[in-house]
Amino acid sequence: MSVKFTYFDLRGLGESVRYLLTYSGINFEDDRISFDDWPKLKPSMPFGQMPLIKEGSKSCHQSVPIARYIAKRAKLTGRNEWEDLEIDAIVDTVNDLRQKVGAYYFESNPEHKERLKETLFNETIPFYMERLENIAQENSGYLALKKLTWADIFFAAIIDLMNYFSGMDLLENRPYLKSVRNKVENLPAIKKWIETRPKTDF
Known about the structure:
Elements: E1 3-8, H1 15-24, E2 29-33, H2 38-41, E3 52-55, E4 58-61, H3 63-73, H4 81-106, H5 110-138, H6 150-166, H7 175-185, H8 188-196
Parallel strand pairs: 1-2
Antiparallel strand pairs: 1-3, 3-4
Helix pairs in contact: 1-3, 1-6, 1-8, 4-5, 4-6, 5-7, 6-7
């Protein structure tokens, strides 16, 4: 069955799905939409948002559920419901941080942005990253279950976006989280994808 993944011509929220599709060995059409073309396409999208995945005549939106769906096919989920809960909790925690960093990046009011920056850099980022670093240490360089799961792939795919939005290296002095990313980026299929994907800022 043909698979088509539609998202902007950047890594952003779509890269975790691209990583998982690539890791799974699923051939897919990487449909990249320019910002110029987006206004014409937007009305045809569910809730006016991307990404979107299509399999044959079926389609579905939302990046995290799409990633989870592909992860199940790749056997990157847990062995039972509790293990799936652990993985989902990590993914949602990382996504929570991504939303907070994104809120700062997209804030247009300079005064409000400065207030957001102080809280984000002094409180929010240290709070999240220290705890994620401890989790990675406890799980032998993974984010759950002491083995590769889709939480690791999600994190490795989204960290560049958070670095770009924050203007800093969130993995500096965090060796266990660096290990998570390095393990994912050295998976043969994902390593090849990184080498050959279109070059974008984030």
